[in-house]
Amino acid sequence: MGYALKETKYRYRAWTKDGVWQEGELTEDKYIKIHEGSNVFHYGQAIFEGLKAYKHKDGKVYLFRPDLNYKRINNGLERIVAPQMDAEIFYEGIEEVVRANVDDIPEYGKQQSLYIRPFVIGQGMNLGVKPSKEYLYSVFCAPVGTYFKGGLSALDFITTKYDRAASRGMGQVKFAGNYGASLYPRKLAKDKGYAGVIYLDPQTHTKIDEVGAANFFGITHDNVLVTPKSPTILSSITKRSILYLAEHRLGMKVEERECFIDNIDEFKEAGACGTAAVITPIKSITHNGEKHQFGDGKVGPTVKKLYDLLVGIYYGDIESPEGWLKEVKL
Ligand code: PLP
Ligand code: COI
Fold this sequence. Notes:
Elements: E1 11-17, E2 20-21, E3 25-27, H1 39-42, E4 46-48, E5 51-55, E6 61-64, H2 66-79, H3 87-100, E7 113-123, E8 134-144, E9 155-159, H4 176-191, E10 196-200, E11 208-211, E12 214-220, E13 224-228, H5 237-248, E14 253-257, E15 267-274, E16 278-287, E17 290-293, H6 301-314, E18 325-328
Parallel strand pairs: 9-10, 9-16, 13-14
Antiparallel strand pairs: 1-2, 1-3, 1-8, 4-7, 5-6, 5-7, 6-18, 7-8, 10-11, 11-12, 12-13, 12-15, 15-16, 16-17
């Protein structure tokens, strides 16, 4: 089953009627019956989100910055020409699913969490290339452990000649097609024994864009945390959190700017960050047949500090910045 540890019993579904979102409900049915002519099957009208619920020591359950997922799903809906969603429906879907599957929320201290997958698809008979008339918003969840094998160990990555998103395409939103485009380069990297792919900017292929389904960051020799500024990457909520924590908790200088692959030596440490990836240290990047290793190839001290801070906040062991955690009342 890969990243998921098991399937859970309940999921949430809300449909539009005449293009307006209706209140949804929980169901045990994991199959969705929709018309064969639905846009999701032919024209890729689909977006998703990913967030996690964490159980704290006191047994309470919290979501991490779900307001940012809410904003991002609406950006995605606009880009796929689907109706905007009210906060009530977005949160109801997530919170109902967390509550209904409460027995599957991993216990505090196990380094596990409940991964929540909201998604929207265009549905209903439609042969011409135009937006669907009707949509489904659904949420399911699964208890998960670490995304990359090996927990907090440094992994090897390789650049690819392929792009996950076009230079003026849909890289900024969590559009399903970006992930479809990533499967082949991922397979090529895996076949060669790498943990995953580093995407370069689609326009010039000279700058680091992203790490598969995570953002990239590097620590320079003078301790500046740098992360790519690019119009083709997904703006990671984890990345935005790390920028804040590095600056305000670790007193580091931070920069969002271009990261040229030919200048990769400027970094002594590097990592991939995302909801699923958390912070995954990068041991090396192979580009044009040359392998660049960061530091001694072990988990670097700054990456480790950031990991401990972030994970401490996830699980309530370290005080969170104001407004980052939203409790789900069980
Ligand atoms: N980049 C891509 C392409 C992703 O799919 C993800 C996962 O959501 C991320 C980055 C990390 O984003 P976030 O930290 O919001 O999960
Ligand atoms: C996430 O981090 O939430 C992702 O979407 C990554 C992946 C599982 C697609």
